[in-house]
Amino acid sequence: MAEIRPFRALRFNTEKAGDISELVCPPYDIISEEQRLGYLEKNPNNIIRLELPKGDDPYNEAGKTLSQWLNEGILRQDEKEGIYIYEEEFTINGLHTKFKGCIVRVKIEEFSKGVVLPHENTLSKAKEDRFNLMKATDCNFSQIYSLFMDPEHEITNRLDKLSDCQPVNELTDPDGVTHRLWIVTDKDEISTVCNAFADKKLYIADGHHRYETALNYRNYCRETGHGTGGEDYVMMMLVDMEHPGLVVLPTHRLVRDLESFDKEKLLEGCREYFDVTEENDVSSAESRLKTLYDEGKKAFAFYCGGDTFSLLVLRDEKILSELLPEKSAASQGLDVTVLHTLVLEKIFGIDAENMAKQINLTYVKQFEDAITSVQNGKAQCAFILNPTKVTEIRDVAAAGEKMPQKSTYFYPKLITGLVMNRF
Questions:
Q1: CB–CB of 340/404 below 8 Å?
Q2: 40, 48 in Cβ contact below 8 A?
Q3: What is the domain range of residue 342?
Q4: Where are any strands of DSSP class E within 120-270?
Q5: Domain check: are 113 and 228 in the same one?
Q6: Is the separation of the CB atoms in 197 and 137 below 8 Å?
Q7: pTM of the full predicted structure?
Q8: Number of folded domains in the chain?
């Protein structure tokens, strides 16, 4: 199945570039312009100059910066091939935990082969941006985040043993997440880890745009004779799907700018499929949803302002099989499918194209941000969701289907700049 290889990573030479904590950054797509400038003010060698270039000709500028940093020794390529063990330790909602995986090169395969499986739809604009950057630099600056099934957890147990020593890099970011990196160069150990993936499928958790871009770039290199073979592989972080440290957070939906928004009409429409109860304290919405989540029920909190909210609990999941017979049971049972089909599309008239273009729908990660957006008038209402289960991600991907955009949010994000892949 998955073909895994070690590689000689491109990494910062901290003796010339500066402290590693000043050289890394979060994923490019969650960084504001203010944050970008802040990283550069702290250290002009921050990876943000390569991963999120700006200016009149940003991609060419990134290519020039990469060449300059290689010539000056700010970046250098490891002498030996290795696999890179990466760990994140963090606290979320009062829970202190951590997860560990390995950063490797993975052979790029079309989704149709069933080796690397997606679970979310993508936007063409983001893919065009990453493709232009890849053409200008011939590099992956950040890794795709993928999951694998390993019921006996043999791979994770081996990674734990191989990283039972001091990491080569360790830092704690502004969000309080600690990042650690170990390098394994022993050929026998590398072979053992790589061979363990021979019967594995990989499920993309985060980085669909980057994977599809890597696939397009590989095809571009074949068509133009531009490549050298390195473009047949892409850098990935691989984590056991059942790792106890994996955390998936919900992405809440905000509705805005609807000309005929009517709260009472919506609630009346919802009563056809949902049990609707009025709750007095909006601050309790998350805990109420968590209880229903643990009971295996499909539920949402609908908020229009003030201190109260409406709790919507689906009465019968069979309705989705009637309305969406072309979808698998895995897709039919998703919370986002229930919300999008029975509420956003059926009652509000917000169709899939509208959602993709975010005409009347936007997304937020934090519960507080969703509530505030309604209170300050930026949104007409908010739908608070429970998180998608990792097993649901697996089942939808295995069925060859994709979830709506913004169905999952793996926390924390993988940091950019510890390890880079030069084709």
A1: yes
A2: yes
A3: 251-386
A4: 139-140, 144-148, 169-172, 178-184, 202-206, 233-240, 247-249, 252-255
A5: yes
A6: no
A7: 0.91
A8: 2
355 in Cβ contact with 255 (< 8 Å): no
- Examine residue 255 and state whether it is found in any structural domain, yes or no: yes
Asked if residue 178 lies in contact with residue 96, where contact means CB atoms within 8 angstroms, the answer is no
Residues 129-157: pLDDT tens digits?
899 999 999 999 999 999 999 999 999 99
Task: Determine the Cα–Cα distance for residues 22 and 89; give it in Å rounded to an integer.
Answer: 19
Place of tokens 């026998």: 188
Q: In terms of domains, do 157 and 80 share one?
A: yes
- In this structure, are 291 and 237 located in the same domain? no
Query: Could you tell me the CA-to-CA distances from 235 to 112, 143, 250, 269, 421 in Å, in that order?
Result: 20, 5, 26, 47, 6
Let me know: does 10 contact 31? Beta carbons within 8 Å: no
Residue 203 lies in a domain: yes
Same domain, 415 and 323: no
For 48-88, write each residue's pLDDT tens digit: 999 999 989 999 999 999 999 999 999 999 999 999 999 99
Q: Is 52 helix (H, G, I), strand (E, B) or coil?
A: coil
Q: Tokens 């910062």 correspond to what residue?
A: 12
